[in-house]
Amino acid sequence: CLVGSEMCKETDVILNRCLNDSFPDTVKDVVFEKSQFSPVSDGRYYSVNVSKTTKKAVDKAVSGIDNSSGAVYFMCRRLADNSNVCWFDNSLDYLFKYGCHEFYKD
Prior knowledge:
By secondary structure, the protein is of the alpha+beta class. Helix content is 41%, strand content 14%. It is built from 5 helices and 3 strands. The protein has a 3-stranded antiparallel β-sheet, with helices on both faces. The longest helix has 14 residues, at 5-18. It starts with a helix and ends with a strand. The model has no long low-confidence stretch (mean pLDDT 90).
């Protein structure tokens, strides 16, 4: 998944959550689950223009290949609240870092 690789991995997290019993079953319910994704929480979601790169990344992600190693969480450490960073570090299994995002599973 080279086009928008970081976006592909983020999309994989959403799809992995849909398949995980600890999360809602639909993309919409996963994305809109309270306090899970900052673009929804801070309102950016409602004003974003979806780029061709984003669309290609989603198409790649839904092709069936998980490029996130089964991640169900990700964060950008430098932008995250300290309490959230501590929870990630103490409660989850670190998988890898790609770009500014770190990916985790439980």
